[in-house]
Amino acid sequence: MQPGTTQQRFTLIDAQVDSHPATFAQEVKTGLTSSPKSLPCRYLYDKEGSKLFEEICQLPEYYPTRAETQILRDRAAEIASQFSEAIALVELGSGSAVKTRILMEALLRRHGKLRYVPVDVSRTILEESSRILLQDYPSLEIIAIAGEYHHGFPHLKAQSDRRKLILWLGGTLGNMERPEAVRFLRVLRDTMSPGDLLLIGVDLRKDRTVLEKAYDDSQGVTSRFNRNILARINRELNGNFDLDTFRYSVIYNEKAGRVEMCLVSEQAQQVSIEKLGMTVSFEAEEAIYTENSYKYSLPEIQALVSDAGLRVAHQWLDDGSRFSSNLLAPSS
User: Fold this and answer.
1) What residues are paired with 307 via a beta bridge?
2) Among 100, 133, 215, 314, which is most exposed with the fewest C-beta within 10 angstroms?
3) Which CATH superfamily is domain 10-16+57-207+295-330 in?
């Protein structure tokens, strides 16, 4: 058992470079004055949005969480066996770390101790999840990094005293445009030392009906999740969006291989946002794009990884071949 109290085993690094509210305000202004209008999907995840997303992950239509969890349960021991000694387990967008526990436990069983380095924009979520994890795993130490991914990258390089397994779970890669995903993986590749590995979840191309149901559930939770970004503008920027006048819309663009999500104004209207000193005009049926979720074929994953200077060491699919977990290594 690793000595030290819970407090002694926890370090929090504030890697935020910019004030998050100011960044939110700037990007809201930019997005709502663009054509077409859009809002960055990362701003869906405030405290309320994060709670709604946790609820989405339990919905019967939303298969990615169950599919990835199955892969991790089946392959955790095999993943842990890639390392001969205690490592640093790094996670991008850690959230509540529910799925991460599967790998933590496999690594602790094999090596006896573990350093966990979660990176998340929410300091509150980092503190809450870390407190619970440290209570549950006495041989765990945590170095938490509060900030956007790119703010945390310099701190990942500092974890050079042991090999790293970097986790990017949940298919978040799909929120990036395809060229952006390559660029991001290249930057992430540059944080890796020889012997480090990267485990990423990538959702696969599949039937339109399955995809559209996954992102537009019968209980309307995903609709509330998306419309919460308008409520957030109201709360934080003194906006006067009437959420009932915007409907949530989902379509799978098969040619582009992406699920497109937006909020559509059901009437011509004007919305004022006091803290931005602006009024936004909407035509009837005009959309605010909130999120794209790209899906990949297996050859597309190979091409993406290769373009980023990585190689696929192992690739696993769930029983339904809906989702992939990809263990990547630097190609040179």
Assistant:
1) none
2) 314
3) Vaccinia Virus protein VP39 (3.40.50.150)
